[in-house]
Amino acid sequence: MTTLVATAVVLAALVIGALLGFLVAQLRSAHNIAGLRIELEAARAGTPAAVPPAEAATRWPMIAALSAAVGLAGGFWLGYATLARRVREKFGGLKVY
Questions:
Q1: Is 23 helix (H, G, I), strand (E, B) or coil?
Q2: Mean local confidence (pLDDT), 16-25
Q3: For 39, which of 33, 47, 49, 86 could close a Cys bridge (C-beta 3.0–4.6 Å)?
Q4: Is 22 exposed, middle or buried (0-12, 13-18, 19+ CB in 10 A)?
Q5: Distance (Å, rounded) from C-alpha 8 to C-alpha 11?
Q6: pLDDT for residue 96
Q7: Structural domain boundaries enclosing 83
Q8: How would residue 81 be classed by pLDDT, with cut points 50, 70 and 90?
Q9: Domain annotation covers residue 62
Q10: What is the pLDDT of residues 23-80, one digit of tens each?
Q11: Is pLDDT larger for residue 83 or for residue 62?
Q12: How far apart are CA 34 and CA 38, in angstroms?
């Protein structure tokens, strides 16, 4: 049962990481569209455009690193649970003399 829970936790972490990646991509494209609109309006008016800096572009490495760390921790936990279950099944536990 613990392996099933561990698998569910790892899958949930992967889904959350994928969702965060998708949302970051959407924010980045929305920011690009806003910048293009500013440039278009400036070109129509004949003045130079002042495009705001991309704040969302600086956050995605942190989100990717956090998602990778959660995925690695979940994978380690899943592997440890599987190994512990197999040792208990084969040897009846780990005995230290």
A1: helix
A2: 79
A3: 49
A4: exposed
A5: 5
A6: 66
A7: 2-91
A8: confident
A9: yes
A10: 777 777 777 777 777 777 777 777 665 555 555 566 777 788 888 888 888 889 888 8
A11: 83
A12: 6
The number of folded domains in the chain is: 1
Structure tokens at 62: 């942190």
R_g of the chain, CA atoms, integer Å? 24
In a domain, 96, yes or no: no
In a domain, 69, yes or no: yes
CA atoms of 75 and 6, how far apart (whole Å):
9
Say if 20 falls within a structural domain: yes
φ, ψ for residue 48, nearest 5 deg = -70, 145
